[in-house]
Write a structure and sequence with these properties.
This protein is of the alpha+beta class. It is 27% helix and 26% strand. The termini are close together.
């Protein structure tokens, strides 16, 4: 099974910048898209998905042009249930989480809120981190492994950030000590594995997001914010994880994973 995750930073814009061509080329079984910025299903995408053999499940933010997630998946295997959010209105109103339940595993599409540049949303973010971990723990109580793909808005370690002033890094949204500790706690307490680092523990320059300012992507001055996390007991089922930094169309790039699941 091939799964991709991609923060498209506006679905309508992404379609004009090659999303359809990428889906046709990469042929994922499941695509997890974040920051769709939609308020209703997008007819052009639905027509495309029908041609490519996908079903769609959207989660919209109440605020127009903001946030939102979308899952595309093949008819087989078909999820037995689809859940939106985690039963907390403040987060669910922003359309940040979709859970696909299959017979033997869960797949989650996650778009973690950013603390923002001046950290004005840091407490909102910290509350999300706590509640999201509790949500994952509840899923794991079903004795089914989880696969989580998405934009976590955090760089786990210094190797995941283009080198810069250390003091400056510590004060940046997405790299504060609290954000990194919450991410590590999610991995440790829920027995999850950062798939890319499992395969490439020391690889540098592996980024998934680049600021649009000062053409930072041209110089690969980026951050790794987009991840696949899987339950430790199925990491042996994963055969590859690739950052597709050759794919444009957003300030993020897709991440691909191949996993052997029933």
């Amino acid at each position: 099974m091939k799964i991709i995750t991609w923060n498209v930073n506006g679905l309508r814009a992404a379609i004009t910048k090659g999303l359809a061509e990428y889906l046709a080329e990469s042929k994922p079984d499941i695509a997890l898209l974040q920051e769709t910025k939609l308020s209703a299903p997008y007819e052009e995408l639905d027509t495309l998905c029908t041609k490519l053999g996908y079903r769609t499940e959207y989660s919209f933010a109440n605020r127009s042009g903001y946030s939102g997630t979308l899952c595309l998946f093949r008819q087989k295997p078909k999820p037995k249930a689809v859940t939106f959010g985690m039963n907390h209105s403040a987060f669910d109103n922003e359309g940040r989480l979709i859970t696909l339940e299959y017979d033997k595993f869960y797949i989650l599409n996650c778009y973690t809120p950013a603390s923002k540049g001046n950290l004005e949303r840091r407490y909102f973010r910290f509350d999300w981190d706590k509640r999201f971990k509790l949500y994952i723990e509840r899923l794991l109580a079903d004795d089914k492994p989880v696969i989580i793909g998405g934009d976590f808005n955090v760089a786990c370690s210094r190797i995941d950030v283009f080198p810069q002033n250390e003091t400056m890094e510590k004060n940046l949204s997405g790299f504060t000590e609290e954000e990194r500790c919450a991410f590590e706690s999610l991995l440790e307490d829920c027995d999850l594995v950062d798939v890319f680092r499992h395969f490439y523990p020391d690889k540098t320059g592996a980024y998934t997001w680049w600021s649009n300012r000062s053409y930072k992507r041209n110089d690969n001055r980026g951050w790794r914010l987009d991840y696949f996390l899987v339950s430790k007991d199925i990491i042996s089922k994963v055969s590859s994880s690739i950052i597709r930094d050759d794919i444009y169309g957003s300030d993020h790039c897709p991440v691909e994973m191949i996993i052997d699941l029933p």
